[in-house]
Design goal:
Elements: H1 7-28, H2 37-50, E1 54-55, E2 67-71, E3 74-76, E4 90-99, E5 102-111, H3 117-135, H4 143-158, E6 161-162, E7 168-170, E8 177-181, E9 198-201, E10 204-206, E11 212-214, E12 221-223, E13 229-231, E14 234-237, E15 244-245, H5 250-258
Antiparallel strand pairs: 1-4, 2-4, 3-12, 4-5, 6-10, 7-8, 7-9, 9-14, 10-13, 11-12, 14-15
Helix pairs in contact: 1-2, 1-5, 3-4
The site of 2-amino-4-trifluoromethylsulfanyl-butyric acid has 11 residues, from strand 4.
């Protein structure tokens, strides 16, 4: 079912999305070698509840943590654990919050220390592809235009592996609403986009081949060739002439620049 949101609903959703951005910003300040991803998850749970919201992921289809923290060859849905982060780790943090009846759900990928040129490029290009997809989230376009733009910039231009099994989605009173937003597809295909449609657009891009598998825990998704995978996700509302990005990377990027333990491309 596709739900088009009213102006008032969009403002409520924006509040949830911005709380995710704020949580990611505060989490970025904590990132350094030696910290465990489980301690990050505990911080995330407390921060969300301290701001009058609930972590959307906890207990979602039985998911057992507040956040998904996916390191190196883990694509998405990584379980926070007792492993310490180390120099060279690539860490995607995906957070959802539920507040005032609406979910926010977005993600950012960080590098601990210098990841080297190849992975730095993968991070940069995956983020660029997200914005190329967002540019297409305009009324009158089709959902496939978003998918095509992401695939063009990542697979066609750089030869990266675009994950097929996981996709972006509509977002609102439920965390996953229609339509699905694949990161690959044909221009001009799929439903027509209308104002008020909120989408979570989330390229998941592998340095190597596109194939992935799920671990026996039922959640952790890894690249089949164990190459590094990068994940960026924004929540956007389809607009008449341009998309309205409800989430905000500004604070996260500032924290990334100011944290000496993190690699920052700018
Ligand atoms: N960003 C992920 C998604 O859109 C979050 C779901 S993880 C789960 O699917 F733990 F909640 F399942
Ligand atoms: Co999502």
């Amino acid at each position: 079912m596709i739900y088009y949101k009213t102006k008032a609903e969009i403002e409520l959703a924006r509040e949830s999305c911005l709380l995710v951005s704020k949580t990611l910003t505060e989490t970025a300040k904590l990132l350094k070698p030696g910290i465990t991803t489980l301690s990050l998850d505990q911080f995330i749970g407390h921060f969300i509840r301290d701001h009058g919201a609930a972590p959307s992921f906890l207990n979602y289809h039985g998911y057992p943590f507040n956040s998904c923290i996916s390191v190196n060859d883990v694509v998405v849905h990584g379980f926070p654990n007792e492993n310490e982060l180390k120099e060279g780790d690539i860490i995607s943090i995906d957070i959802g919050v539920y507040k005032n009846g609406f979910h926010g759900d977005h993600a950012y990928t960080f590098a601990i220390g210098n990841p080297g040129a190849a992975i730095a490029q993968l991070i940069r290009v995956t983020k660029e592809s997200l914005y190329k997809g967002i540019e297409k989230a305009v009324a009158g376009n089709r959902v496939g235009d978003i998918s095509f733009a992401i695939q063009e910039h990542t697979e066609k231009k750089y030869g990266y592996g675009v994950v097929r099994e996981l996709v972006g989605h509509g977002l609102g009173r439920s965390m996953h609403e229609d339509p699905q937003v694949a990161n690959y597809g044909k221009r001009g295909s799929g439903i027509k986009l209308r104002e008020g449609l909120i989408l979570a657009i989330e390229p998941m891009i592998n340095l190597g081949k596109r194939e992935v598998y799920t671990e026996p825990d039922g959640w952790t998704v890894r690249t089949a060739d164990h190459s590094v995978s990068v994940h960026f996700e924004h929540d956007v509302c389809v607009g008449k002439n341009r998309a309205d990005i409800l989430s905000d990377y500004t604070g996260i990027e500032e924290a990334e620049r100011n944290n000496p333990a993190l690699f920052s491309s700018d």
